[in-house]
Specification:
A hairpin with a 5-residue loop joins strand 9 and strand 10. With 612 residues, the protein is α+β, with helices and mostly antiparallel strands. The protein contains 27 helices and 14 strands.
């Protein structure tokens, strides 16, 4: 070993924790303290019970020329002061969490998500853990040190402070995982050998307890001759500070067993497919986003195959892309559907360009790219007809202006894929995203910054409507957009609005903003519209009507601007924007105000799109 840089092997989890207990595996002093909150520990325990990979442990073989001060892993109290055989460089959080929850005979001292100190015991609900449709992590509970749960008045509402109460509640203490089945014997004795309870224990022991006994952890051990500088560098590179492994990292470890490098595939086959400038809108698509889209397709195909076999509706597997679904994604399914998803994202970029969305800076929802790519991948050529594109655009804009993709979105993704594809293929009922979307007219007043999806959506609709620069007459689309010389600016300047006594909450809204070049905005300055319109006529070297026509392309009223009539302008443009949003969503927007806008400004912008 002395002449080897490192070794790689798999070691039983039971043996590793035994080494921690007796002090054969300890921490170098430069390792910081244990920081994992109890929900992270519960997730780790659930993963091991399901035989999921939880990452590699990296050790340094002790006894070489380079010496480090060491200390036992927190919770371990080895007899005497034993010298360690190995020092833990990476994996401290996992080993400490597992040791304290599985081997320690006292309460686990940890913290909650607010980083407040808590102590308690980990239990698992035996019945819930065996539910095939449940989430294993939800079956694991962290109980207070007293093993009693109290309400806000301090009244005990749950009590598991004795073994008998554990048996009655079917709650298995995690510290009994390695007890050789003693707890299970006492459990069945408590129930006087009841057949149902014996069967419950047998199944639980097989499905939950036994995997801990069989679990092996990949271990990289650096040799004794590793120099101090190299040890420190390795530690800095590999130690992640207790951050939970991502789905991508977990699948990378899983697929590696079959000699498939997921990370290399993502970098060389997936991301590389959209490096060209025309795919700039995809530059922030993450590896997890990609896996979600692949999982949507895989689960949709599985559901479709089962339906074709005649499986009853209520028994069909669900379409999904939650963490649990992604972790269940087989290598075979990944290899099968990844090419379609790559093509789906590229087609999504083309679709978004047609909606005048070119860059992530103005993309309303990055999350909506996931179902969009999956829909285009599954629908294939049927999504390319004019009618299909119109439906797809309605769904997209309903999601944007209904602001439906800002929170937890996985459930909506699983609805979107079958809903939109069936709508495109078979003229089925409108997707749930379309029917649920509503845009409240009052929302226009609160759209003031680019942080809002609807704000960015209105910007795109103005570009799609053919908005032209007031000075040059050039359309504010691809060339200016990619040059980043076009941005959103005030129509009635802030300085003028302040002097006129208007509230910032009004003049800073999207109703008083539009895409203009930086040079045009400098001409506007802080002057009244009546003043800067004259300057625009001179610098544009065109008649007043030419400037007025370009202003109308922004759904703004030039005559009201020339009269410095902010109230009239605001009401007319508000109505025009509502009409544009209504047309994009394909549904009426009920407004309690009667401002219908100027008859010379069309509320339906679909005719203008032919010129783009």
């Amino acid at each position: 070993m002395a002449d080897e840089a490192f070794s790689i092997d798999k070691r039983p989890l039971r043996d590793l924790l035994q080494q921690v207990e007796v002090g054969k595996a300890q921490l170098p002093e430069f390792q910081r303290g244990w920081v994992w909150p109890y929900p992270n520990i519960a997730s780790l325990l659930a993963s091991i019970s399901l035989s999921y990979p939880v990452g590699t442990v990296m050790l340094l073989k002790a006894g070489g020329d380079v010496r480090f001060k060491y200390r036992p892993i927190e919770g371990a109290t080895p007899v005497g002061e034993p010298e360690p055989d190995s020092l833990v460089l990476d994996g401290q959080q996992r080993l400490t969490s597992l040791f304290q929850s599985l081997k320690l005979k006292g309460p686990v001292i940890t913290q909650d998500l607010r980083k407040q100190r808590v102590s308690g015991w980990f239990y698992v609900d035996m019945v819930q853990a065996l539910d095939e449709n449940g989430d294993r992590e939800d079956a694991i509970r962290f109980l207070p040190e007293s093993r009693k749960v109290v309400n806000f008045r301090g009244e005990v509402i749950e009590d598991y402070s004795t073994p008998e109460r554990e048996y009655e509640a079917h709650l298995f203490p995690l510290h009994a995982v390695f007890d050789g089945g003693d707890w299970g014997d006492e459990f069945t004795d408590h129930w006087d050998g009841d057949k149902v309870k014996r069967k419950l224990w047998r199944e639980f022991n097989k499905e939950f307890v036994r995997p801990f006994d069989l679990y092996h952890v990949p271990v990289i051990e650096l040799g004794q001759e590793t120099p101090r500088q190299a040890v420190c560098q390795v530690f800095e590179k590999v130690n992640t500070g207790g951050v939970t492994l991502t789905v991508f990292e977990l699948l990378t470890a899983t697929y590696a067993a079959d000699e498939f490098d997921l990370r290399d595939h993502w970098e060389q086959k997936c991301r590389a497919a959209w490096k060209a400038p025309e795919y700039r809108i995809l530059r922030e698509v993450s590896n997890t986003d990609f896996l979600q889209a692949v999982t949507l397709l895989a689960t949709a195909r599985r559901r479709g195959d089962e339906a074709a076999r005649g499986t009853e509706e209520e028994r069909l597997p669900r379409i999904g892309c939650k963490r649990k679904d992604m972790l269940a994604l087989s290598l075979e399914d990944y290899v099968r559907f990844a090419p379609s998803v790559i093509a789906g994202f590229k087609t999504a970029a083309k679709f978004l360009h047609q909606q005048f969305l070119f860059d992530t800076k103005f993309l309303p929802y990055g999350t909506q790219l996931i179902p969009l790519a999956a829909i285009l991948a599954l629908a294939g050529d049927t999504a390319q007809s004019a009618g299909a594109q119109q439906k797809l655009a309605r769904w997209y804009w309903c999601g944007v202006f209904g602001e439906l993709y800002g929170g937890s979105t996985e459930t909506r993704f699983s609805q979107d894929l079958p809903d939109v594809v069936d709508w495109i293929r078979d003229d089925a009922a409108e997707p749930r995203t379309v029917t649920a979307a509503q845009f409240a007219p009052g929302r226009l007043l609160t759209l003031r910054t680019r942080n809002s999806a609807a704000y960015k959506g209105i910007y795109a609709l103005l570009l799609k409507a053919g908005a032209r620069d007031w000075r040059t007459g050039e359309k504010a689309e691809v060339i200016g957009y990619f040059d980043e010389s076009v941005d959103i600016h005030h129509i009635f300047p802030k300085t003028w609005c302040d002097k006129a006594g208007y509230e910032p909450t009004v003049y800073n809204s999207i109703v008083n903003k539009t895409p203009l070049t930086a040079r045009t905005n400098r001409i506007i300055g802080g002057a009244a519209p009546s003043d800067y319109l004259e300057r625009l006529e001179k610098t544009a070297e065109t008649a007043r009507e030419g400037v007025a026509e370009r202003i109308r392309s922004h759904l703004a009223h030039p005559d009201l601007m020339a009269a410095d009539d902010f109230d009239g302008f605001f009401a007319a443009r508000r109505a025009a924007l509502l009409g544009s949003i209504s047309a994009a969503m394909g549904k009426a927007i009920l407004d309690d105000e009667s401002a219908a806008g100027d008859p010379g400004i069309s509320l339906d912008v679909s005719d203008d799109t032919d010129d783009l």
